[in-house]
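COMPLEX REQUEST
Ligand: flavin-adenine dinucleotide
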Amino acid sequence: MDFSLTEEHIMIRDAARDFAQTELLPGVIERDNAQTFPDELVRKMGELGFMGIMVDPKYGGSGMDAISYVLIMEELSKIDASASVMVSVNNSLVCYGLEAFGTEEQKQKYLTKLATGEQLGAFCLSEPEAGSDATSQKTTAIDKGDHYIINGTKNWITNGGRADTYLVIAQTDRDKGHRGINAFILEKGMPGFDIGPKEDKLGIRGSDTHTLQFNDVKVPKENRIGEDGFGFKFAMKTLSGGRIGIAAQALGIASGAYELALKYSKERKAFGTEICNHQAIAFKLADMYTEIEAARHLVMKAAWEKDQGNNYDMASAMAKLYASKVAMEQTVEAVQIHGGNGFVKEYHVERLMRDAKITQIYEGTSEIQKIVISRGVIKG
Ligand SMILES: Cc1cc2nc3c(=O)[nH]c(=O)nc-3n(C[C@H](O)[C@H](O)[C@H](O)COP(=O)(O)OP(=O)(O)OC[C@H]3O[C@@H](n4cnc5c(N)ncnc54)[C@H](O)[C@@H]3O)c2cc1C
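STATUS: Structure written out below.
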């Protein structure tokens, strides 16, 4: 068993760390306030190969492994979780979904642009009445021979406004239950495809989240992903890998807050000494470090399972469940260590605390992760 990173992994991590410090940190508070994220930064992340990290270079990707993906996600998330969620959705939901299950034509047409960051992708599963219960899809895709007609509403869609390519899950045959669900590739601008206003959120405010409306959208049959009825399996398989990305995002949010709290505790004085010399604060730091290390091991293990070609459904669910809990709890502690300064934007920890919450909600809530894990445990 070898816990050390390779030289290549260290280089990749350092490149992401450098980018986060020099490009993401300036303006992160302003972007959070204004709920914006400039196209220029997305373009730069594409140039660094962050938009198609695990994609085969023949489709424009970086050809890296899942460990590299996790390292990049952690570094970006320490500074700006709005940037990292764009990276995560594009990489593990959209690019992975197309590369693993798309046809060669779909890969050439869409994946090559998504993996380079020339275009951005969105993954559209959730609906007003189908969140955790994703089988209750109300969006319909009626088979019309050489095309499908799609009607319905998707909500909470990350990259909803700025994406070019949308992977949309819809019900084709209700009588077949989840075996009657399909996944489709839609393009922005298709007639009948409307994008609603941006959500005003607690955290990851730089990331755009929208409701999407489909009114008789005509989608050619060649835009269906996989065999007829493969859509639900497609969504579950894709989300399983996505959870590794969100677990790494949670890890980054927690470790970013920890690093800020440690530094602050060595500078801030109270009762004639740096506050890290008060045992109550020192023990908080000890707990934070231990919990974050435990989360890191689960996240790395999930990525390693994926790299080995093993089943990683349980590993990714455990990593997301635990890392998101650590992110929520330890960002609160980071705010506490900062005292009053923790409560204002300038010190960054309040933003990390707000950003942490979403990691317990999207790509399957913590309760849903426990369903996945408990099923696995009981099945043996
Ligand atoms: C900022 C943001 C970005 C998002 N991005 C995307 C995206 O890009 N694409 C996309 O498709 N979706 C996206 N989502 C949607 C997200 O995945 C859902 O919000 C999430 O799956 C929960 O669904 P819900 O909101 O309908 O909650 P519900 O499913 O209504 O759940 C409400 C509560 O009930 C609990 N619950 C539900 N069922 C059970 C059960 N069987 N046992 C125990 N507890 C249960 C849940 O855990 C939760 O606590 C995003 C959401 C947000 C907020």
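REMARKS: The chain has three domains: 7-120, 122-231, 236-379. DSSP finds eleven helices and ten strands in the chain.
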